Each structure stands twice: as C-alpha cells, then as structure tokens.
Amino acid sequence: MSQPAFDFDLDDGGEPTFSVGELADAVNGALRRQFGDGVWVRGEIQGYSEKNGHAYFKLVESGGDKRAVLDVSFFANVRMRLRPLLQRHRLYLAEGMKVRVFGVLDYYAANGRLSLKMAGIDPRYTLGEMAMERDGVVRRLVASGLYDANRRHVVPPMPLRIGLVTSVNSAAWHDFMHQLQDSGHGFGVRVVDVRVQGDFAEEMLTAAIRTLGRRSDIDVLVVIRGGGSRTELAMFDSESIAMAIATAGVPVFTGLGHEIDRSIADEVAHTAFKTPTACAVALIDTVQSFAGRAEGAWAEIAARARRQVDRADDGLLETARRIEQRTVGAVERAGQRLTDRAHRVSLSSVRLLDHGEAALARAAVRLGQRPLSCTAEQLRTIDQIEARVRLLDPVHTLARGWSLTRTADGHIVRSAADLAPGTAIVTTLADGSFSSRVEAAETIKPDPDTATTTATSREEPR
C-alpha cells in the first residue's frame, strides 16, 4: 500500500493513513480473515421491507440498557434458493420473528454501513424460539386457571346467534358464510372486521374478541382466518389473544386454517377446527342435530298422543257398550217391575173399591141414624142457652131489686169516679125510673174478701 508524501512538517510517527475506500477494503479484508466464509447471527427481525425482489431488515438484540442492531440484506437469488427450506418448515420472514441467520459481513463504503449479506437460515432456531414462547404463555395461562376456562361454557343446543371475528371479504369469510347460507337455517351473524396478519392485527383481534365476548345476544363466538405460514399464524400464539378468548363470556370456536399445528388460541378455545369451513359445518351439524332431536321428540309425542287417543277410543267404546248393556238390563228390569206394580195396583184397586163400598154402606147406615140423635142433643143445648140468656136479661135483674144508673146523655155509670158533684143522673128500676143530681161522689177501695163474697153472690141467680 503506497502512501503519498506531503511537504508538511508533520510527524505521523510512521502510522499509515488510509483513504475511505482503502479503509473500507481493509475492513472487509479483516472481516473475511476473521470470520472466514461467513458467520451465524441471531436476533429479532425489525423494519422488514421488500424491494425489487430483495428483502431488507434489521437484526435487533435488546437486553437491559443494551441494544445492538445489524442491517441484513436478503437478496432475491438467495431468497429463491432458501424458499423451499422455509416452505418445508412453513416459515415466512416477518416483523418480530426471532431468527438465526448465516451470512457474510460486508462494510459498504457507499453508505459507510456494516451489513450482513444473508446466505442461510436455521429454521430449528426459529421454531424453538416460537415453541419456548408458546410454552411460556401456556404455563402462565395454566397458573392463572384460564387455560380451560372457556371450555367450561356450555354450547347452546341451537347456536343460531353467532359473533364472528375475521377479515371480511377474505376467502375464510366467504367459505364460512357460504356454508351458513346454504344450510337453510336462520343463522344471525354479528361480524367484526379485523386484520388477521400484519401491523395492528394482534391488537384488532384482541379488541374484537373482547367486545363480542361481553355481548349477551350471541350464542357462540367464532374466530377464523385462512391458511398461512407458521410465522403468520404464530400471531395466534399471542398471550393477549389467548387471554381474550379464555375470558370470553360465551363459547369460542376457532377455525384458523392450518392442518398440522395448533395455536394457543386453539388450545384455550372451547372447540378448535382445522378450517373455517369445518367450523361452519360443526355449527350447522349442531343445529341440525338439535332440530332432528326436536323433530324426533315431536314425532314421539305425536305417536304417544295417538296411542293415548286410540286407547281412550277403545275405552270409550267399551264403556259405551257396558252402559248400553246395563241400560237395556235396567230398562228391562224397570219394565218388569212396572208390570208387577201395575198388576199389584190393579188388585189393590179392586180390594180398595170393595172396602170403600162396604165403608160407604156402613156410613150410609150411620148417617141415617145420626140426624135424630144429633137433633135431640142440639135441642137440649139450645134450651140451656136460652135459660142462661133469660137469667142475664137486665129486666130480670132489675126485678130482683137491682137498678141501672145513666148520665143525662145516656152513658151507663159504672164507677163513682165517673161522677162529679152536680152531675144529673137517671136511675132505672124494675117498674120505672127517676132523675136525681149528685151531691157528692166517693170512691171506696173494695175489700178483697167482700169483693169475693159479692162476686159469689152475683153468680147465685145463674
């Protein structure tokens, strides 16, 4: 390496001075001598972008206060060569993915940056990192008791009200809705349109699941997306999505479109299906099964009802037959009793007429004798009454020395209390009457003994 000489009075101590290009060459030579044909580097992909078939990203290592960044160039020819390896392991380089890559370090003089020209990748490292992260999430879910929380929900027998989280108008959406629409059942779908990969997909999925999981007007919550690489589907290993599913208030079905692996979302869901179509078919089968059981139960109810009606008809006919027999027998017995009673009545009537005629004859005899004795007895009674009437006649009473006193206006005086001094009175005797005037009137309280004697004496004339 030649060094130009300058006519300056400088003492460089014999140290060489490089041009920028010479230094770049020196750095690249040192890198090749130090790292040979290449070096393995691990880190997390950030800032992933593609241009003209090439891919560019940064490998980042963060730990505590330390942060290290290395630019990586993934050229189109290398991408083409590594594609079968990545496809075999169902990997696709994406933001946030942890990788172990092989490449050649290169200091690019044009921009003064050190970068790694990627030439290989270790899929096992990425899968191992993903598995470790999955295991950590699973352990935390198990420890919190949420790992099987959603499976404790009971799927309604007729899950017609569905909450759906997916990318609307995607293939998964069309497959799922096509199955429901062709089923002929009255499914009602409330859908939240989200991204299922890329930026903000995890946040959108988590928020949508939490929103629908709190609703009381859905029977089942369904999360679906189409197939994809393992790294694309690794988003469903997210702890936030798993927590949203585990704490949902309704059963959660997943149909995430991968045939081999199960994501943590599948693990914590009530039921996981391989594809969105399979998820829709399962819902349809559940509804059809319930409808079939309902139809069978209704048919059994109808059959039992028919049997009951038939037995009731038979019983009614038998009862009617017995009633008919008993009625005929009762009518016949009643007719016989009526005939017997008519005969007895006929005989009794003859006897009663005979007895009546005999009694009438005796009564006629008695009636012929009775008037004479009755007339004599009545005459005696009349004579007795006439004698009592004569005794009570005032004329006869006056003849025995009694008198009858009246006031001037003709009222009979019965008590001294009826008279006042100066009152004019008329006294009637047996042979005439006279008038007088009261000078004084005195009421005398009768003596019981005297009254008794007087009353008795008054009865003597009778």
List keywords for this structure.
alpha/beta, disordered N terminus, five-stranded mixed beta barrel, five-stranded parallel sheet, OB fold (Dihydrolipoamide Acetyltransferase, E2P), 462 residues, disordered C terminus, elongated, Rossmann fold
How would you classify the helix and strand content by structural class? alpha/beta
Give me the strand/helix succession.
Answer: HEEEHEEHEHEHEHHEHEHHEEEH
Q: What does the overall shape look like?
A: elongated
What is the third-level CATH name, the topology of the domain at 132-288? Rossmann fold
CATH class of the domain at 132-288: Alpha Beta
Mean pLDDT: 83
What is the helix content? 40-55%
Overall description:
With 462 residues, this protein is an alpha/beta fold. Among the domains are: 102 residues, OB fold (Dihydrolipoamide Acetyltransferase, E2P); 157 residues, Succinyl-CoA synthetase domains (Rossmann fold, 3-Layer(aba) Sandwich), CATH 3.40.50; 60 residues, no CATH class. 50% of the residues lie in helices and 19% in strands.
Blueprint (SSEs and pairs):
Blueprint: H1 20-35, E1 39-51, E2 54-63, E3 66-74, H2 76-88, E4 98-108, E5 113-121, H3 123-144, E6 161-166, H4 171-183, E7 188-193, H5 201-213, E8 220-224, H6 230-233, H7 239-246, E9 252-255, H8 264-268, E10 271-273, H9 276-392, H10 394-399, E11 404-407, E12 424-428, E13 433-437, H11 448-459
Parallel strand pairs: 3-5, 6-7, 6-8, 8-9, 9-10
Antiparallel strand pairs: 1-2, 1-4, 2-3, 4-5, 11-12, 12-13
Helix pairs in contact: 4-9, 5-7
